[in-house]
Fold each of these.
Amino acid sequence: MGKLFLLLTVLSESAAVVFMKLSVGFQHRLYTAFAIVTYALSFVFLTLSLKTLPAGIANAIWAGASTLLVAVLGIIFFKERLSTWQIVCLMLIVIGLVGLNVRKQVS
């Protein structure tokens, strides 16, 4: 269940960032309200995931996966552009996330 809650953390936190962008500095109240609710949900889900996952690993996965997802959502919804260097750095995050999730086989 911990990984499911962590996934919900990433999704809700990423949605919160998109809603904050849409709120245009808190000018649009509906998007501001959605941002607050989805951020609150992300903290609830993170807290639930920490019941079974190590805090450091869960936080690293949350931060990295949310960064990647928000970057992709920014490209899709806001027509944001990334430089080649930014793309390389995001790929390094992917490598780190894969590394954190690979289980070492004990013979």
Amino acid sequence: MVVLNQVFDIEKKLAGVDDREKLYRPLEKIKTAFDSDEMQFLIDDPIAQKYDITRTDVETTIVGSSHDNLKIVEVFKPIIKITSNGVSRVIQKGVVIASSTDNVESK
């Protein structure tokens, strides 16, 4: 999982780079190398997704004074899932910060 976390981190950092296409291809090859006929890995970036307390796939710190209309605003670790024989399960919870969309709109 360390390698998959590093791939996620590199992809995040590449978002601001102009000529990132040349670098995405090797990253995709690394991710594909983890897959096999029996199992596939998925790196799930939950940024901008709705958050509520029933989510079990992330460990969350809530910032701001309101806990209504929460949205994930920062991702430190992605959700990593593995699919095997048609069954998907989380093998790493995401570590995120959530904030009220009411707080974001008022800025």
Amino acid sequence: MRAALLVVLVLFAANVHALDALTGARAVTFDGKRLVHAAEGKTPVEVWREFVPPGENLERWTRLASVREYPTHRDPKALAGELVRALKKSYPDAPSALIENKATGEVIVDFVAGPDNGAFTEFNLFRYGTRDAGGVVAQQYALRVYGDAGDFLRGLRAERKRLLELMAKEGLKASR
């Protein structure tokens, strides 16, 4: 596990121009998958856009990406810590990890969670970084399986490592 985290830290690359390209994107790609705009919104602290595979919707999706902008935040690690605290409050037994690249200030959080009734299980990756224009941007990629998650969870160890490395190296990409 430590070796995998070291690889992720080495791959972490701050790519401010890629973050700027995500602003207002109507579609994104990650892991060779194109996801299209499904929803967006704004709160006093956050502007968000969510993307799902073509033909899916937010009520039932298998992959989801989001771009979340926090214009008044300055510290990616603090914001990532808020996510972990909220996760532990809602899902106390959820496995999670927080990986920080001290050189860039970027942080990746990943976790597995789902409701007690087992209706679905999710694996989530969040990459937090700052923009030159100010504020923090979070890129999210999630996989969801409905019902029995046994096969999903058994395959997640290798998949987690691969997706962590991809998120650290490339992150989400704006797409047409």
Amino acid sequence: MRSLSITAFALAAVAASGCAPDATTPDGGGGGSGGAGGGGGAALVTYTKDVKPIFMVKCATCHTTEGAGAHNIGTTYADAFKLVMTPDAPSGCFKDGDAKTMPKTIGECTLPAIMEGWMPMAMGCFNTPRPPECVSVAEQDVVAAWIAAGMPQ
């Protein structure tokens, strides 16, 4: 039974890794110039089309003009590629977890910050049910798909 579980897990991991598109960069490299992506299948989740509208509603107070956390990810795509600068961020925002010496990018940090109820700040998003000001599970899934796709513009 155990070997069956390990085999199933290994096959799932191989299948998932083979479906991931190439990562993009702030200048649009890697996945084209910010277009709709390649081939058939589901539409590629992008910052401009899918994620920015969520950030504008849920994160705009602090991350569009104030530069809280040293970024404006709500309006500035390039800020998704800045490194996390605060050791107060959740451990999921660091490649080395609780040691917090190897920061991920702001874009990569959005998901742990949302999932751990850390963002939006002071909205009680760690409560169940989450208040309406918080990122919904459906919105969280969009952000997760964007990060998994390499954060394309």
